[in-house]
Amino acid sequence: MSDFLQYLITGIGGGCAFALVGSGLVVVHRVTRVVNFAQGSFAVIAAMTASTLLASGFPHGLAEASAVAVGAGAGLLVGLVAIGRPGTPPGASLIITLGMAVFAYAVEVLIWGDQPRSFAGVPGAVEFGGARFQAHYLLIIGATAVVFAGTGLLFARTDVGRALSACASNPYAAKVVGIDVVRMGLLAFGIGGALGGLAGVLVTPIQLVTFDYDVTLIVGGFAAAVFGGLTRPMHTLVGGLLLGVAQSLVAGYGNAAYQMEVALMLLLVVMMRQAARTPAAQQEPV
Amino acid sequence: MLRRVPAVAVAVTTLALPPLLSGSHLTVYILLGLAVLVTVGLSLLMGYAGQISLGQASFYAIGGYTAGLLCVHGLPTVLGLLAAPLVSAVFAVVVGVPLLRLRGHHLAFATLAMQLILLSLVARADWAGGAIGLQGIPRLSVGGYEFADDLSYAYLVWAAVAVTLVVARNIVGSRPGRGLRALAGSETAAAASGVPVGRYRLTVFALSAAFAGLAGGIYAFYLGYLAPGSFPVLLSIEYVVMAVVGGLGTLWGALVGATAIILLVQVLNTLGTQPGMPDYAPSVLSYAVYAVLLVLVVIFLPHGIVPAVRDRLIRRTSVAPEGAVVGRPVP
Q: What transmembrane ranges does the database entry give (chain B) (predicted)?
């Protein structure tokens, strides 16, 4: 039982990273219809930035916050390239973000090399119901809860959030009432970058991060986002947590080497189910 | 007759080049031919059938491992070479039946997932050499003639390229080819006009896998060694870059795209390994080239290099009557 509790908590911690990356995908996709393939790179960039800042003497908190800001900046940059030129179709934007993800490799290897990086998180361990785990997991879970509540409020209660939602549901009508759709799209990319950056900063203390860790994150994040049809943040949270827990249970009771396959098979199954329910005519780009 | 001139020129050049190239250049030439083989298939899939695949390197790997495993266990190498495209195509049909229900970015991620699963399974399969790799693959020999030196492999690869291009050209020009083009435009409209959408999508997927499998088979015999690390996700992305840069849906585009990328990467590689350059320079430069080329082409030449150049040539050479629309109609 205490084993199970431990797997559950570490799984939720890992799942939070997928949920954060996935919610970044959702924010960008809702507003711009672009699936941002570079979403995982923001996490890696932020993680590497934080490790460098911490190593050069920045205090905890400030270093992480600056790293998240760098992630947001990277998101904005990718957004500028992907949707900055008017009339770029979402399909082409997917290819552009793919290119930006590869470009991020060049930047990351150039600045930080190709060795894995990590830094210390919240020190100490916590005992709870017979399960023992790093205290850092509590920070991950708490921060994710706050961020999801915050984005929920942002979309539901603020003018900017309403403008973002307006672009999501009908870009043309949003333009008619005076909302700058491109600027909102860029804002969405910035938020996506910050969410990805947060995921990277939170996950690095429990997981070594290399420059190509973004593939793991983007696949897991996409699986979580697909769970919510790429539009619903709360479903994405649930999807991410389910994925994380499933992975950690497989690693705990079965074979740790099969973690990746679990995520991938889950992704495929969820997508097939959704495709089976949606007629082909509705899936075509308009 | 004039239309044939470029094709003949390319054929003559490819035939004349190999004896003139030195050792390392010949290797690049062979690898270029292999890349063209894969890219032709991907260009068909993306340009004509409108499906994106981020897992094309998995078919390349399957072809390679098929040929390698069969011949390591003593089967005739010709059989291995023939089996490589066949097994890849069968695999594509098996995974394609469920996967091809997906569209657009869903399909992109599904093919990516397929490759990741395949790589990690191969890395743990001891019977396929595991993560260390499959060693001791014999050289290809056909009816007593052994393909021993690089020169023979250069001709083998480019013969395969020629066959693939002819097959692809005939498919594109046929009635099913027109059906494919229709379904890339709008699946619903194509289905309504009687195009068997599902079957065509699956066929092109299998065909592109067969091309990649053939390339993988030749690669296995040429190198004599295979490892899961030879087929990373980045390789699949490279093929997408080559297909997009050259021009989707044009067969010449695959040739031009692959050539442009491989040559550019080669030049930068030479530059990056100069004394005084840091040891990470080659990888940084090649990542940057893929990324910058891909992004620039998608933004500024959305149809790719070959269609852009062709339209310009047509506009310049033909004396268009007043008001006639020449070249690609503006959407």
A: 26-45, 57-75, 81-100, 107-132, 152-172, 204-227, 239-264, 284-306
